[in-house]
Amino acid sequence: MAFNLRWATLALALAFPAHADEVTTFQLSNGLDIVVIEDHRAPVVVQMVWYRAGAADEARGVSGVAHFLEHLMFKGTEKLAPGEFSKTVEANGGSDNAFTSWDYTAYYQRVAADRLALMMEMEADRMRNLLLSEDDWRTEREVIIEERNQRTDSDPSALFSEQRRAAQYLNHPYGTPVIGWRHEMEALTRQNALDWYRKYYAPNNATLVVAGDVQPEAVRAMAETYYGPLAPSPEIVERDRVKEPPQLAERRLSYSDPRVSQPVLLRTYLAPERDAGAQEKAAALTMLAALLGGSSQTSVLGRKLLFETKEAIQVGAFYDGTSLDDTTFGFYVVPAEGVTLAQAETALDDTIASFLETGVDAAQFARIKAQIHADQIYARDDTEGLARQYGEALTTGLTVKDVQDWPATLDAVTEADVLAAAREVLDRRHAVTGWLMRDGQEETMQ
Amino acid sequence: MIRALFAGLAALLLAGPVLAEVKVQQVTSPGGFHAWLVEEHALPFTALEIRFRGGTSLDRPGKRGETRLMAALIEEGAGDLDAQAFAEAREALAAEFSFDAWDDALSVSARFLTENRDASVALLKSALTQTRFDQDALDRVRGQVISIIQQDAKSPNRIATQEFDRLAFGDHPYGSSRNGTVETVSDLTREDMFEAQDRIMARDRMVIAAVGDITASELGTLLDSLLGPLPEMGAIIPPPAEFQLQPGISVIDYASPQSVVLFGQQGIKREDPDFFAAFVLDQIVGGQGFASRLMEEVREKRGLTYGIGTYLAPMDLAETWQGSFASANEKVAEAIAVVRDEWAKVAVEGVSEAELAAAKTYLTGSYPLRFDGNGPIADILAGMQLDGLPVDYLVNRNAYVEAVTAQDVKRVAARLMDAGALRFVVVGQPQGLQATE
């Protein structure tokens, strides 16, 4: 099935590490964690600095400040003029960018391997020495509001997802969008950004990942030179966010918008995440998502709703366990023409119930395991992807060992583990069900 | 001894220190298939990229969307296997196949493990040469395509693209969505699918690249088996498209806080002696990264957009120079004025030596960084062949960039850039912006 509906960009994540012998880790005396992934096939290197600070660490009322600061990190230091960071990377043939999530903020450059020292010098400089002029921060606030316009407010499915998350988390900050609520973004100030920066940007709150055509000892020496002199921050403490209370009542929401052409049913359940030394349940949920909705043609939902009853034109299951706190397990169903969302929801629930009764198809289970084995090979072709896996894991409470154990943990999952995890998580009392509808063609939610 | 039958492998190419590892062999199989190969035995898998010229431009009148629907059905049942049995077989082998079609080509991208290469290739062969086009698969995938067409009709980006293409190319296939319309796709039949496949998947228009854990002789055997049954000749590729874009501003009403803007003018052919000067010029005006003129003027200085970029599109049958951005409805008129001003300014003044130097170091430095995996390298090598570039382009490409002078850029800017010729297609509810018709 080569056509992917836009809705189906919620991907199933089976993430795989590099071979252990290609990965070296160490720590500088100021607390900076360093991971080196060797890949000598091409003379290219990726440097990534991951901070253990994301949108879910923001104080109430300043949503979006983590992402705002990410933008402002390109505005210069005493040594670099505004914009000069990216210009220098580009003048060296590289590319650079940054991204913010709920659990982390990360910055990266991809350059020829012999330019690594320059990248380290600049990245270390802005870790502690950022300057923000009056003009720069105001203009950049306009830019992030345009980003929100583009990514969220112009896209009904993004708005719907934002509402769905807010409904999922009553207390935990995962319910607040990374980009920020618009009215709070409009009020963000230079001081908000600087407070954030001073609190979180320090070597003892960061992980440096260097991947590509490099030798670990050379990376260590270079890192000592550039990052070594940076002072750690005494303010950094283990993150301990407010907890989500047990969900007792099912939550339902419906949203209609004139820009919707294709109604969609979305269901997400609160679910446990990968924890250091305890990834088994997350592994079982990862396998469950693959079994129920990984492949259009061969998954349980695909077979039933796309092939047998033809009630849907697209279905899927998704689960991403790489998260510091409780995550979600979800389904989406795009109903076929003439099928209501109520019918689609019944079909989804019936299919899940019947799966829990009949159990796991052994042949399908074996095929998924074969793909897990192969993905460990394919993943090694993408060094930047490997670097992201380590960075993401190490900023969401996992260790290098957890990353390297993950394929074996997946491989060890049994059919009984999958069913036990399914019974625990797939309970509608712990779920949010959303209906995205065309304006003027709303259905009444029961 | 198959090895002895090989017509001879091209010299290894060394493209300076950075490309030293990309050693391209030109392979001719015993059956006469030409391929570019990079042997890379570090990982036990191979990436294979096959492309057929013509793409969705081969759609017949009234059957718009047939090539894309056909491409989507290639893995929906083949030989003895229906869609589900085919997927099960592929998943058991952990092979990955994907099929796509755009204006100028149809692509087959595969990656498969060394440990089960023969079985993977046999399965891919059945998909390419014994496609079933079962009626239920056709109806199912058609439903998905129609859903996409309906979503496109409400997507501001897609609305803008379709209007721009229509204004630029009218009735030529370039002028309409390659997905087709609800009407044309609804009418497509199984027979149309077989016909569409024969029109494009033929030996007379094919390029092949392979990168990975495979030798030249193994690749030759593989290609003869995989592609041997394909027909000799496909359909005639249509004539060049007439460029009909008129200057001005189109506004399409769309209720959203932001307006999406596509803009452009005529571009330049890949074969034009000034192509590289234009390529460097585009990088300076609106190319990759954060350093371009338009990023500086529209985003960094004024905060009018999250991002703006331009690109040259030298297609097989026409060439455009296009850009895009999105701005809040109350700011979009100002953003358009800034784009026009910069366009006019560069046309007259050219660019500074510093801008030229920065663009050249970026373009030459970033080129080798693209060659960073079996899949990406196969993709680049197939693209080069479609563009008619020789193998030594890998070595010479950076020298072509280096050779561009400030005088070249100035001449090309004066020749190509015409702020008065720019067309802006705006989808949104822009304030203070008048459509020209």
From TrEMBL, chain A:
InterPro entries: Metalloenz_LuxS/M16, Pept_M16_N, Pept_M16_Zn_BS, Peptidase_M16, Peptidase_M16_C
Keyword Glycoprotein among record annotations: no
Domain Peptidase M16 C-terminal: 188-371
Co-factor requirement: Zn(2+)
Residue ranges of domain Peptidase M16 N-terminal in the record: 35-179
Key words, A-Z: Hydrolase, Metal-binding, Metalloprotease, Protease, Signal, Zinc
Signal sequence region: 1-20
Family: Belongs to the peptidase M16 family.
Name recorded for this polypeptide: Insulinase family protein
UniProtKB/TrEMBL annotation, chain B:
Keywords: Signal
InterPro entries membership: Metalloenz_LuxS/M16 (IPR011249), MPP/UQCRC_Complex (IPR050361), Peptidase_M16_C (IPR007863)
Signal sequence extent: 1-20
Domain Peptidase M16 C-terminal: 187-362
Name listed for the protein in its UniProt record: Insulinase family protein
Record organism: Albidovulum sediminicola
